[in-house]
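Budget justification note: compute hours in this period were largely spent on complex prediction jobs such as the one shown. Inputs:
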Amino acid sequence: MSTAANAGFSLMANLPALQVVVPMIAAPICTFLRFRNGPWAFALLVSAATFWISVNLLMQVLGSGDISYEMGGWPPPFGIEYRVDTINAFVLLIVSGVSLITLPYALRSVEREVPRDKHHLFYAAWLLCLCGMLGITITGDAFNIFVFLEISSLSTYMLLASGRDPRALTAAFQYLVLGTLGATFILIGVGLLYIMTGTLNIIDLAERLGPVSDTTSVRAAAAFLTVGIALKFALFPAHFWLPNGYAYSPSAVGVFLSATATKVSIYVLLRFQFTIFGDIPAFAELDFATLLLPFAIMAFLVGSTVAIFQTDLKRLLAWSSIAQIGYMVAGIGLGGVDGLTAGIVHLFNHAVTKAALFMAAGAIFLRVGSMHIDKLAGIGKTMPFTTLAFVLAGLSLIGVPTTVGFISKWYLILAALQHGVTGYAIAALVLASSLLAVIYVWRIVEVAYFREPTANREVTEAPLSMLLPLWALTIGCFYFGLETGYSVDIARAAAQSLLGVTP
Amino acid sequence: MMEWLGQFNYYVFAILMMAGIYVAMSRGNLVKKVVGLNIFQASVFLLYISSGKIWGGTAPILGDGLTQPISNPLPHVLILTAIVVGVATTSIGLALIVRIKEAYGTVEEDEIAEAEALYEEELIRAEEAEA
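Corresponding output:
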């Protein structure tokens, strides 16, 4: 600390700490801004700053390798180390980018769906949630992951319950019970690892775990961690809070959480699975990511099937999210550079696609006041730009070539085909699930374009503050589908660094 | 016998953990679920605290006469954070229960499901009346 003070404060050298500290300090300040649109403008400003920091961190990592930052000047493994490598720089960029692009959209949605006297608290919870997710991603300390996980979870419960629909309350409570169980499982897992090795630093853990790896305690730790993390990202049997949570909370919350929360938990899975347990021979035959594979396959089959039968547009999208989480975990479970690339690139691709779809749904909700699919008759004529964006993003959800969804599925199937007969079966199931996606996207197209609008209802196009972010993401679905240089190359580099393979 | 006594804390941890999860999962009353979660979290506090303690160990304060073995203070500090998290979770859980009670007039899971179904029916009826 003293050396830093002597040398003067260097902004660029302290970016890893600022990434988390800026939104953390901004959140309480936000609660004091009670004037109209003040909290919103402040949150937008802070989000822009965190996005700028993420971009710079990614540049630094790609330019000059991994960054190790000593929090408070205490050297690792004793102090808390913030460690930025390719994969978490990528996830940081996704999280802060989604927050930045969702906030302009949030203005109108929150105005309508959150009581006016609660706006400052809503945006404070938003910033805390952002801080928690960035913290989980950037930290190199296992216990710190738990702390930030709880910061983001506690604010997520608030965000989910901040709307006017009482059904969101029960969903938030279900998630509170399940999320606390999951986080406490992670706490037990970290505790067992600490008891066995005496360290909490992730790099140090990976090195010291070798001699004690073939013990029941370490295996139990791995099991607790895997189950705990799977509970946090709503893998198939633990998904029941998610549809109501995303559907009945304010639209902006659905956009933000569907694009970030599950992604960050999947990153934590990757971190524990590969950085800590990756090099240990005892885990070669008992690979927990592979054990998750059947659940992942069930997730995308059940998710896509149930989505077809939904009558509420946002619930349909939420069920489709459950299916998409299945694809990501399937990629990780298949393993190998291709499988991991598929899983990691789908983190980004699904964030872009699902954020666009939830934005379109939220814009329709703002104008129509209902999410019931029958009420959306003729919406293609009354809200042409919103509906067109929805359909284009829907194509990406299906995985039509030239969209980002295609890139993810291409790599997922490529990875599956390396696994012999079971691999062919998995590839076939992925294709079947994509066909189910065609059905549920088509249902919306049919209602929106081929039915006459209800005459007695005045519906106008969504406001510009919603259309611009929506179209930015929709164009992103195609831009990153054609220009794969950014997303796929970074994901591949991340997969290689996790597996310890030199390119 | 002595070995069993030495691991007494860990047996209590396992029993409390199971009891906590069981209560949080099986009870229909939301307040009881929060109580279950609290028991579950408290059991993990016990795991951490037990792991840092050694027989005859003293507090690690620098100075003269530090000849005795010392207990590891780190797990105790870590669990302080987890206790704070537990308090925050309980308060948010209870706040949600208050709002659920305001919205549906009950804190029993099955009755909430019924009230929710009624709410959905009313919503559809209101929309039909409007159209």
